[in-house]
Specification:
Chain A: It catalyses: N(6)-[(R)-lipoyl]-L-lysyl-[glycine-cleavage complex H protein] + glycine + H(+) = N(6)-[(R)-S(8)-aminomethyldihydrolipoyl]-L-lysyl-[glycine-cleavage complex H protein] + CO2. The complex is a heterodimer of chains A (493) and B (126). Chain A has 493 residues and is α/β, with parallel strands linked by helices. Chain A contains 14 helices and twelve strands. Classes of the chains: A alpha/beta (493), B alpha+beta (126).
Chain lengths: 493, 126
């Protein structure tokens, strides 16, 4: 292990060393204490690192080489849709007319940008089968929460503010119950049946006059299409509840089936997943929410509208709105990328995305099913979930398999999720990978399965080729070191 | 895998120790070994009502967050405050220092439905 590369920029500092010469001050010096109370004015110089330009370059270049992104290798992280982000998106997002405008400019000076956003909304309405879309929410969970707040406002407006239960299947993303809780609802979990789909009887059992909504991903987190979706929507609508579509898995049905036609009342999309916004580094994301007509009055304001004279306008006159959910109007740069993607792909292209995403997942599932258990063995959509329980009997856990994949240069799939699969391994290849890449990854998985039989220690002690081996995740969680302190000697084991 | 004879067990891998109409609840040795190192424990508050099969708290390991499902219904009369600061007790001593809550049992029939050590051992060997 090369420890030199692990030092922090603060630890290579040498007093007096500089990497940049500031221009001489060309404005009069100003005493900050005239403006700010003296107890709030810093008295000592900030301890910024003192390094040369070359020191900086080597430091950050070394760190960047430890990244793994979709540009450097296969990234089959289940339910995250780590597809390739076309570089034309970046070119368009950097157009001066998009990159150098300010959200507080007068509307008349940014009509082009507003037109792009409006057209994006219209495209997303068409793709989802919804009546109106807001681009405000900044990410998926934000979109979930926004939609739930609208559902709450809808029920309250109808004198049914007592509806406080949100139903979530046990295979849902953890964000669903979390969003429901933050929106002030109580979550009811329903179990999946033997076939991995929502158990209709269990759904019928829990719905009632207190049902606010059902939150559902379709296909679900096992990558299986909820084929009873129309009946499920009818059950929930029958008791006066709303049905919410978590768009995390839209890549499996885009341009083939529309949530609006399946009975969903509202939907969020992850533009940073399905529509090639970059993600995996924490954002920024974009989580637009689409709604059917009866939820439109509750959309967060402002609502971007097209006026009769053809100009675009932010409409604040929405008395029933849940209010603003984000400063300005969403993460504009990400929305430009999503718009670019939709326009470069076109309707036929988006259909092909879905077909290849599903084909790739099924191809891998069939290549791997001999070597790993496949608890829900049926035609999958864009992802599938293996179980490492056969390997567990040989003393090799799914975590070990994930670590061993690092030796082959792959980002491991999602593991131990969904919770209804023992030792789960959740693989989502996306449409952008070639057959050669899918085969190479399957070969690695098959080799690892063989290693668990022939030489389990090799897998149990993996990874062997990475800069660091197993990290102490327990210590990191129990006693995290979250910031650098100058005097503190932090030892890295 | 340790499964003490004097305790009762639920399908969701909780153990129950009955004493004078009160039940003390924790998670089993099998559960902690499946979860891995526990890094966070969330418990209800004294006075809360917990209901059979409904979540009453959660445990977080480096792998996953799992809900704690009440094996029986009752009113919480004590929680293990020390466990909140020392989640590693769940791994070190699941039947001892890692007890989670004590409740006043409200439905004796639910206690009758719990498994004994032999039945629970058979369940986890499946």
């Amino acid at each position: 292990m090369n420890n030199e590369n692990q030092t922090l920029i603060f630890e290579i500092t040498k007093p007096g060393r500089i990497g940049y010469n500031l221009e001489p001050l060309d404005v009069p010096n100003f005493d900050l204490e005239e403006l700010i109370p003296s107890n709030l004015v810093r008295q000592e110089a900030a301890e910024l690192p003192e390094v040369s330009e070359l020191d900086i370059m080597r430091h950050y270049t070394a760190l960047s080489r430890r990244n793994h992104g979709v540009d450097s290798g296969f990234y089959p992280l289940g339910s995250c849709t780590m597809k390739y982000n076309p570089k034309i998106n970046e070119t368009v997002a950097r157009f001066s007319g998009f990159a150098n405008i300010h959200p507080l400019q007068d509307e008349s000076t940014v009509q082009g940008a507003m037109e792009l956003l409006y057209d994006l909304q219209t495209s997303l309405q068409e793709i989802t089968g919804m009546d109106e879309v807001t681009l405000q929410p900044a990410a998926g969970a934000h979109g979930e929460w926004t939609a739930l707040m609208m559902i709450r406002a809808f029920h309250e407006a109808n004198g049914e503010g007592h509806r406080n239960k949100v139903i979530v299947p046990d295979s849902a993303h953890g964000t669903n119950p979390a969003s429901a809780t933050v929106a002030g609802f109580e979550t009811i979990t329903i179990k999946s049946g033997e076939d991995g789909l929502v158990d209709l009887e269990d759904l019928r059992r829990v719905v009632g006059p207190d049902t606010a909504a059902l939150m559902l991903t379709n296909p679900n987190t096992l990558g299986l299409f909820e084929e009873n979706i129309i009946e499920m929507a009818n059950i929930v609508h029958g008791v006066g509840g709303k049905v919410y579509y978590d768009g995390a898995n839209l890549n499996a049905v885009m341009s083939k089936a529309r949530p609006g036609d399946m009975g969903f009342d509202c939907v969020h999309l992850n533009l940073h997943k399905t529509f090639t916004g970059p993600h995996g580094g924490g954002g920024p994301g974009s989580g637009p929410v689409g709604v059917k007509a009866d939820l439109i009055p509750f959309l967060p304001k402002p609502v971007l509208v097209k006026k009769e004279d053809g100009t675009y306008h932010f409409d604040y006159n929405r008395p029933q709105s849940i209010g603003r959910v984000k400063p300005y109007y969403g993460n504009f740069g990400i929305n430009v990328r999503a718009y670019t993607y939709i326009r470069t792909m076109g309707p036929d292209g988006l259909k092909a995305v879905t077909e290849y995403a599903v084909l790739n997942a099924n191809y891998m599932m069939r290549r791997l099913e001999e070597h790993y258990d496949l608890p829900y063995n049926r035609h999958c959509k864009h992802e599938f979930v293996l179980s490492g329980r056969r390997q567990k009997k040989l003393g090799v856990r799914t975590l070990d398999i994930a670590k061993r994949l690092l030796d082959f240069g792959y980002h491991p799939p999602t593991v131990y999720f969904p919770l209804n699969v023992e030792e789960g391994i959740m693989i989502e290849p996306t449409e952008t990978e070639s057959k050669e890449t899918l085969d190479a990854f399957c070969d690695a998985m098959i080799q690892i399965a063989q290693e668990t039989i022939d030489n389990s220690a090799l897998v149990q002690e993996a990874p062997h080729t990475t800069v660091v081996n197993r990290l102490d995740e327990t210590r990191a969680a129990r006693t995290p070191v979250l910031r650098y302190k100058k005097q503190e000697q932090v030892t890295v084991s | 895998m340790s499964t003490p004879k004097e305790l009762l067990y639920s399908k969701e891998h909780e153990w129950v120790k009955m004493e004078d109409g009160k039940a003390t609840i924790g998670i089993t040795d099998f559960a902690q070994s499946e979860l891995g190192d526990i890094v966070f424990v969330e418990l209800p508050e004294v006075g809360d009502e917990i209901s059979k099969d409904q979540p009453f708290g959660s445990v977080e390991s480096v792998k996953t967050v799992s809900e704690l499902y009440a094996p029986i219904s009752g009113k919480v009369v004590a929680i293990n405050e020390e466990l909140l600061d020392n989640p590693e007790y769940v791994n070190e001593s699941p039947y001892g220092t890692a007890w989670m809550v004590t409740i006043e049992v409200t439905n004796d029939a639910e206690v009758e439905e719990l498994m004994d050590a032999d039945a629970y051992s058979a369940l986890i060997e499946q």
